[in-house]
Amino acid sequence: MSLKGGVVMGVWLCGGRVKRRSHVPELTAERRQVIEDRANRFLVEQGVVGVPVDIKSLVKKLDFRVKELDFRDNRTTGMIAVNENEWIENTDTHRLIAVGKQLGHERSRFIIAHELGHYLLHKTQEQPLFARRDTDTNRSDEPEAELFGRAILMPKDKMEEAVRYFKSNERAQKAFSSISKFIGALFDVTEKKALVRLEELCLLG
Ligand SMILES: [Zn+2]
């Protein structure tokens, strides 16, 4: 599998053609590939075949507790804490993923996928892990967890299949006014995330 796109000067290129101002975070093509491969490998390991991916069950299989929290600070939408040596503060678990209470269903799903990305990409052996997700953070591992979240909830092969179906099916086109709405409904993600994924896989237009 290879990714056709890349960010140059804030513009996302597909096969050399400028598509639009990019919403896709800048990561090297090599790193993007590593993250896409890790997400796919995880889905295969877990025996996931269909969509929408039941992300909550997947993290529970890894012994994560998923909690809704009322983050006082409005900018925090989720967090992950892993400490194999002791319980996470105020809990009786070693592995916790928390999502903001006020978030809707699709956004909560995405945050769980994002936090799983930190666990699979950034957890170093034996070291406790702690990360919180702010809405406008630019720490370097945030774009990586974001890409992982998109890749695991919207796998590339499934996206290509869905786009082919939408383009050849008038009923689907009538039922959903845009391809991003169709992808959002099919993969159980927000339309905004669907659009970024369509863009980074060069599936728009
Ligand atoms: Zn994060």
How would you describe this protein?
With 205 residues, this protein is an alpha+beta fold. It has one domain. The chain contains eight helices and seven strands. A four-stranded mixed β-sheet has the order 4-6-5-7. The protein has a three-stranded antiparallel β-sheet with strand order 1-2-3, with no helix packed on it. It is globular and about 55 Å long. It starts with a strand and ends in a 5-residue tail after the last helix. The chain binds zinc ion. Residues 114, 118, 131, 133, 142, 145 line the site of zinc ion.
Poorly predicted segments: none
Distance between the termini: 21 Å
* String of helices and strands: EEEHHEEEHEHHHHH
Bound molecules: zinc ion
Q: Rg from C-alpha positions? A: 17 Å
Number of helices: 8
Query: What's the main sheet like?
Result: 4 strands, mixed
**Mean of pLDDT:** 87
Secondary structure: number of strands:
7
How many structural units, i.e. domains? 1
Strand content: 15-25%
Shape: globular
Strand order in the largest sheet: 4-6-5-7
Q: Structural class from helices and strands?
A: alpha+beta
Kindly state the percentage of residues in helix.
40-55%
In short:
The chain is of the alpha+beta class. It has eight helices and seven strands. The radius of gyration is 17 Å and the shape is globular.
